[in-house]
């Protein structure tokens, strides 16, 4: 029997690799002769770097970069085992958690540090870059990223604008002749699970600005500034990204990546499935096991368990899922190729207790599932 174990992380409790090990340990106790293939997964958000490192035997690189408010912050990105792929989470440099709640103002934040991480990866000689852009504190359309990579965003006096959402109002011209030469040489793929346009009522500022601390007045200003940014991009680069689905992701960073880096926006779960060659690993398997911290009615919208189950469904391989908790509406996953789902929490406990005992609970739940499976094999 061949069992593929492909969970996401159980946030604040286990990394995806730790979850995979817990599942394997539980199953092996009952089915020691089975072949187990562990594939730690992610969906492009938090934990993606660690998943790629764990799956490929890669390394983590740490460096100081410019934080969202312009102050130095310690950030990181991952390199695959063969050094050909860099995996960068924008939240590591420009995330909302890098800004104290009392200081949150999306007019003033920048993606400059995110660009510094990309620049360092380009200098490492990678051939492909995977960008996870969730959790941003920014609304600058990627202006900071572009400027840190050598692009010039200039005002009417040919001086650099402020690389912030507020600074976009001063943009007059664009010059990308000095952009890092390797930008055009690498493949840039972006894990993006939203389809918001750059501007408008469904755009970056109106939908995501409030959670970044934006007031109604600031949000209107930011939307106008992004619209102006899109107009200058049309004029100087002959690209129209204003209404492109996904351009509004991460405060317009999705649009900046499309316009300046020729990046490709993809569903995060599907991107990781492809990058980790999950389809080849599932072919010929007898069972697939996936999971993450919580499964609910939103899981079907591109989350890891569904990305995994849809590959398994393609090859008629049954899939079961584990979760810290199964929330209201979770049963819609059964229409997407998952055959059974189990909560791993055995008794009433505090959140702290549940998180700290996650590994043991997942191992024990896996062992019980294996016992049921063994009954069916007799």
TrEMBL record:
Alphabetical list of NCBIfam families matching this protein: glycerate kinase (TIGR00045)
Name of the protein described by the UniProt record: Glycerate kinase
Keyword Membrane among UniProt keywords: no
Sample GO molecular function, one term: glycerate kinase activity
InterPro entries in the cross-refs: Glyc_kinase_flavodox-like_fold (IPR018193), Glycerate_kinase (IPR004381), Glycerate_kinase_RE-like (IPR018197), Glycerate_kinase_sf (IPR036129)
Similarity comment: family membership: Belongs to the glycerate kinase type-1 family.
Top-level taxon of the source organism: Bacteria
Keyword Kinase tagged: yes
Keywords: Kinase, Transferase
Pfam families: Gly_kinase
Example GO BP: organic acid phosphorylation
């Amino acid at each position: 029997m061949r069992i593929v174990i492909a969970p996401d992380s159980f946030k604040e409790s286990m990394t995806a690799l730790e979850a995979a090990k817990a599942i394997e340990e539980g199953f092996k106790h009952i089915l020691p002769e089975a072949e187990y293939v562990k594939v730690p997964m992610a969906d492009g958000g938090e934990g993606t770097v660690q998943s790629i490192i764990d799956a490929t035997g890669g390394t983590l690189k740490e460096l100081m970069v410019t934080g969202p408010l312009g102050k130095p912050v310690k950030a990181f990105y991952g390199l695959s085992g063969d050094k050909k792929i860099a995996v960068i989470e924008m939240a590591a440099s420009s995330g909302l958690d890098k800004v104290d709640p009392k200081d949150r103002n999306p007019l003033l934040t920048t993606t400059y540090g995110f660009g510094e991480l990309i620049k360092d990866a380009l200098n490492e000689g990678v051939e492909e870059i995977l960008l996870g852009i969730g959790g941003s504190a920014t609304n600058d359309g990627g202006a900071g990223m572009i400027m840190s990579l050598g692009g010039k965003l200039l005002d009417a006096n040919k001086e650099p604008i402020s690389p912030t959402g507020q600074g976009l109002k001063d943009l007059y011209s664009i010059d990308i002749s000095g952009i890092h030469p390797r930008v055009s040489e690498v493949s840039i793929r972006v894990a993006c699970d939203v389809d918001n346009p750059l501007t408008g009522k469904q755009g970056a500022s109106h939908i995501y600005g409030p959670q970044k601390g934006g007031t109604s007045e600031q949000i209107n200003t930011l939307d106008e500034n992004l619209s102006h940014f899109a107009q200058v991009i049309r004029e100087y680069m002959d690209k129209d990204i204003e209404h492109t689905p996904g351009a509004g992701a991460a405060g317009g960073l999705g649009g900046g990546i499309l316009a300046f880096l020729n990046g490709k926006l993809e569903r995060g779960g599907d991107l990781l499935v492809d990058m980790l060659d999950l389809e080849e690993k599932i072919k010929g398997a007898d069972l697939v096991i996936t999971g993450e911290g919580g499964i609910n009615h939103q899981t079907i919208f591109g989350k890891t368990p569904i990305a995994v189950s849809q590959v398994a469904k393609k090859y008629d391989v049954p899939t079961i899922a584990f979760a810290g908790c199964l929330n209201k509406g979770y049963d819609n996953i059964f229409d997407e190729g998952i055959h059974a789902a189990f909560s791993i929490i055995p008794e009433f406990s505090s959140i702290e207790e549940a998180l700290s005992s996650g590994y043991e609970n997942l191992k024990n739940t896996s062992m019980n599932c294996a016992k049921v499976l063994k009954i069916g094999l007799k």
